[in-house]
Hints:
Subcellular location: Membrane; Plastid, Chloroplast thylakoid membrane
Family: Belongs to the ATPase B chain family.
Number of helices: 2
Number of strands: 0
Helix content: over 70%
Structural class: mainly alpha
Distance between the termini: 223 Å
Protein name: ATP synthase subunit b, chloroplastic
Pfam families: ATP-synt_B
Membrane topology: Single-pass membrane protein
Amino acid sequence: MKNLSDSFLSLVDYWPSAGSFGFNTNILATNPINLSVVLGVLIFFGKGVLTGLLDNRKQRILSTIRNSEELRRSAVEELEKARDRLRKVEREADEYRVNGYSEIEREKANLIHATSDSLEQLESSKNETLRFEQQRAINQVRQRVFQQALERAMETLTHCLNSESELHFRTISANIGILGTMEEITN
């Protein structure tokens, strides 16, 4: 401690007298005074400027926070809207899927029904064609049977007529002979 008091006493020897003006080149003696003066001036004059700067910064930070909150709120709203649209689109997709499946089933049933109707029509047409061909065959057989019966009848008739014509010829000849005799008798 004695060293410290000795250093202060030695500093007093270097201080200029009170009546003179000049620069003190002793750094240890002048720095605390200068610093306190500078700090006092800065605090006195800079307090308003510093307060204004801090208030402006505070207002910008608060404004940024409010803007961020509004952006977050609008982003949340947009997200909810997007989720609603997604749910709606998913419902519509499910409806289309269900309707598509039912439409496919309906088309399948219609196709099966149409094919069944076509097969029935083909079967009916086939049966009608068979009946027509059968009737035609029956008619041809009838015509042949009728033609053969007619030919036999004609043969029988011709044969009968030949026999009868001979009989008629004899009858006529006999009658002519009787008439010839009667004429002779009457003459």
